[in-house]
Amino acid sequence: MLTRFAPSPTGPLHLGHAYSALTVWQVARDLGGTALLRIEDTDSTRVRPAHEAGIYEDLAWLGLTWPTPVRCQSDHYAEYDAVLDQLGKEGLIYPCSCTRRQIADAGAKPGADGLVYPGTCCHRSMADAQPGDGLRLDIAKALARIDRPLGYDETGATTSKNITNDLLLGTIGDPILRRKDTGDPAYHLACVVDDALQGITHVVRGMDLRDLTLLHVLMQALLDYPTPVYHHHALITDADGKRLAKIDHAKALAKYRAEGLSVQDIKDMIGWRD
After folding, report:
1. What number of other Cβ atoms are within 10 A of residue 118's Cβ?
2. Radius of gyration of the chain (CA)
3. Which of 4, 19, 2, 3 is CA-nearest to residue 58?
4. Peptide bond before 7: cis, by omega within 30 degrees of 0?
5. Best CA proximity match to 180, nearest among 137, 138, 139, 135
6. Are strands 229-233 and 71-72 parallel, antiparallel or unpaired?
7. DSSP letter at 14?
8. Cα–Cα distance between 126 and 187 in angstroms, integer?
9. Is the peptide bond before 69 cis (omega within 30 degrees of 0)?
10. pLDDT tens digits, 169-197
């Protein structure tokens, strides 16, 4: 059994990260397996070395250890490019030059991964790709390529969760696999490739990513990757029920440490029981 904790060094870790990390290591312990640390640092405009260093410090302070070397996604762009080349040859991706404003102005509706892309560029072929274009997965073509039912096993569930075409098309749309302008591999591509190459058998992550698991299972089928078992844990919220996340400027673990709080104090704050 092999699982992973995969933070992005785009900000400091907060209480929600602490809960997720502790859950990952607990699941690994309970199943007699190993928890890896992976640094998901493909957002070149936002990652900072100081944030990566802080991840190591915070996790060590929580008493968590992991095998080394740690996989950093920024060291593996060639592997992601090879997968994009494969998908391109199979006609499953297309170039996209749309900005977020253009997507919103086209009347896109909110979905599981931001606005559901309206398909503005889906008629374009890879031969039409221009410098600075992003690359999107053509969900309709991808689904047509799969000749078997898609689903995945969830811990604590009695049956597999089945994936329907309508759910993928309606709640996710054609996702970005390579970002425009920067050329960075997007989360959906790098995450799926890394899980397969690292032999991850159990993916432990927050409930906020559960709907995106449908997309990842589809990509695993396209690339002939095994589908891990999934465990989507509850999210840590504040007194008003708002999810604690770095995007909302949640208080950093390092600040709690500086104020003299102990690891047990942090566990009490997130309702953690060993």
Report:
1. 18
2. 19
3. 19
4. no
5. 135
6. unpaired
7. B
8. 21
9. yes
10. 788 889 999 999 999 999 999 999 999 99
Beta-bridge partners for 71: 38
**Per-residue H/E/C for 36-49:** EEEECCCCCCCCCH
∠ CA 264-270-274, rounded to 5°: 55
The tokens describing 236, both together, are 């840590």
Structure tokens at 205: 């992550």
Place of tokens 């997130």: 270
Average pLDDT, the chain: 92
The reported pLDDT for the residue numbered 151 is 87
Q: Which residue has the tokens 């996790």?
A: 59
* Residues paired with 96 in a beta bridge: 134
User: What's the full length of the chain, in residues?
Assistant: 274
Considering only CA atoms, which of 187, 178, 191, 188 is closest in space to residue 126? 178
